[in-house]
Protein: Fructose-bisphosphate aldolase
Organism: Chlamydomonas incerta
Amino acid sequence: MQAKMQAPRSTVSGRAATRSRVATTKVVCRALNSMESAHVEELKKTAAYISQKGKGILASDESNATTGKRLESVGVENTEDNRRAWRELLYTAPGLGQYISGAIMFEETLYQKARDGRQFVDILQAQGIYPGIKVDTGLQILPGGKGETTTQGLDGLADRVKAYRKQGARFAKWRAVVKIGEAGCPSTTAVLENAHGLARYAQICQEHGLVPIVEPEVTLGPGDYSIEETAFWSERVYSHVMRLLNEYGVVLEGILLKPNMCLPGLDAPVASPKLVAEVTTRTMMRSIPPAVPGIHFLSGGMSEEESTLNLQALNEACPEAPWALTFSYGRALQSSTLKTWAGKQSNWDAAQDILLKLAKANSQASTGSFKGPHPVPGGGRILQALRTGGAGK
Ligand code: 13P
């Protein structure tokens, strides 16, 4: 690993204090914990590195089909080389590592190279960014008729994790989606099944040396349900996930959590950043143990500016949070970057510039120090994108 991958230097005092309280219970936790991975100490260091103050994750693990839709939206054909060029633009942005500590990749991308022959994983590591890999293989409808889903990908996962680690990946992502906002949703089956999948995935990743990003996404969908309803279900879902992680002996210091922020349904009036922050931090306080080093929110359903303002409000609402409250943004970092590039070499530098500005704004928001103006102001919710298949991965 490169010299740039140093342990984080600073944490806010509240986090440090909570950690020392946690440290006193270490013996008990370790004794009860069944995880005997040779990698435990490394997993903890990697998770702490990725969650360090002022940094977040660039989620660039869209499947080829989803990447294709996004490329085609700016007139770029969905070919392997165009997907490669797009990711090269992201990963070679000069100085990206000042704001980004991890980049999640799709399998194809993990093995790709830049035009100059350097492997993407080496480019990222040289920027101080850990390469990560999406390991789930997508969603599958659960029987029952409400459109709820489970996540596929456990079969053969151990072998894939070993191969990804060999290629340089140090963390992984598995996205589980729990649908709300419709009568009967979420069902007990969906909550339990998704919690089980996340726990088994996390266990397998830790055993073979990847930090699992646990992503229980209480999905933001159509409907006029309230922010309190999202909070109610989010709290339940996260609590189930945490209980199963515990049952499966997953080391919480060696995971990262990637949840949704609590937002009202897409057809309800938008909630202010202050309200989102109040309700989201309350939900996290009730359900996420302080041993988890970082909560890296996804941006789905928010505009680029909303993603930054809501993250800023979260850090203002909870400056002494026991975990990093930061980002793992896909669309909030990529949308304007992609539009600016539009496949033209002449736009390359301008596109990298907008990516860096967005990454910087979110880095500042993750420490509660974003003062604006935002590099991409305005733009309400991306309802249309969600409804036309732009959501998720
Ligand atoms: P968005 O920030 O675009 O929601 O993507 C994050 C992600 O990785 C969802 O799985």
